[in-house]
Amino acid sequence: MKASLRLLTKRRFAPLFVTQMLGAFNDNLFKNAMVLFVVYTVYSDPRAETWFSAVSTGIFILPFFLLSALSGQIADQRDKAAVIRIVKAAEVAIMLVGGAGLALAWAGVAIHLFAIPLMLLALFAMGVHSTFFGPIKYAILPQHLSDDEVLGGTGLVEAGTYMAILAGTILAGLIAIEVAAVAVILIAVAGYLVSRQVPPAPPLGTIEPLDYHIIRSSIAQVRATMHIRRLFLAIVSISFFWTIGTVLFIQFPPLVKNVLEADKSVASLFLGVFSIGVAIGSVAVNRMLGGKVSARFAPASVIVMGAFVVAFHAVCLIWNSGQPVGELMSLRDFMHHQHAVVLILSLLGIAIAGGMFVVPLYAFLTTTVAKSHAARTVAANNFVNSGAMVIGSVVTLGMNFLGVAVVNQLLFAAAMCLVSAWLAWKLHCACD
């Protein structure tokens, strides 16, 4: 553990770590400021709120599906540090557009005509930003770290990412939307400045021509990766995990408002608790595995995750806010509710178990193949993950269309955990 934390003092790791944290922080500050504003201010219908939450998630994910193959090629065949600086410079421009959308929403000017479309456009662009940054943040680790540091570095990146998600999520629920409009721009500028300190990471293999054909390059990249059995199992396991995560994240804002009858500060608390839990799980599993890349705890972790989802569902079923019609509980009132502690602990359990499940699987992606192909392997994973997450969004919309209550949709996520456990067990048997 101490050895992993020492990486935070090294230039070969620290600037990347901070750049990633600032990007994740900004993503979530912007997205949650937008979603919470729309859910709590614009719409007053549970189905419309779930629809908007699902659509915004789908818009963010879509670039991963379209551009992951290209992003993996660029990351492996160009200097990764140079690509990071270009991506972070683009974030500044993106947040100028997103900030304008938030400012228009605050002013009440053309909310449906301009404000929401501008915010969704910026969200899509941030999805593009994350698509190109994602392969690099993992693939650069084997290039800058020794073999026995990769799992620890991966765990720190995941923990830092989710702590940033926590901070961005909480801040989105606490600050006014006009403040968020300015903050997202300033944070983007800070991210670009820090990114300039990432050490060079030149390509390690033969430079090949880039294939800009989205479909052909995506198929080729997945084929080049999925024939390796343990990579196939790791990628599919991660995909199922993110399908579960997508369903849960879509449900949180409307569930908090319409089932728990609480305000947006409680929605932020839920997303924050989830982020803390994943961060704890990410660091804990590295300690339990002693730095060895292994899937031996993954099956049990995801089964425990499913059990906590069922527990969370059960508490939601018996929840009674006692609020007058039309009034929402504040964070203080929520924390004084008799079932609040059990609900939060259930959510924390979901997240800790999820972090313990997914971090070793990400380490498989960058340690199974040659370093010169690490980014393309991560990109292939992102492509498959994004498809699974889009499916999760569509399934959520389908359940919503069929009238399945938000609280009962949680059981779909719990059932998916069993499939993930089976896949993780097969991975464990194939590798250990």
TrEMBL record:
It comes from the Bacteria. It holds the Pfam family MFS_1. The keyword Transport applies. GO terms for cellular component: plasma membrane. This is MFS family permease. It is a multi-pass membrane protein. InterPro entries: MFS (IPR011701), MFS_trans_sf (IPR036259). It is found in: Cell membrane. The chain crosses the membrane at residues 50-71, 92-125, 161-194, 231-253, 265-285, 297-320, 340-365, 377-395, 401-425. GO terms for molecular function: transmembrane transporter activity. Keywords: Cell membrane, Membrane, Transmembrane, Transmembrane helix, Transport. It comes from Sphingobium subterraneum. The keyword Membrane applies. Its main location: membrane.
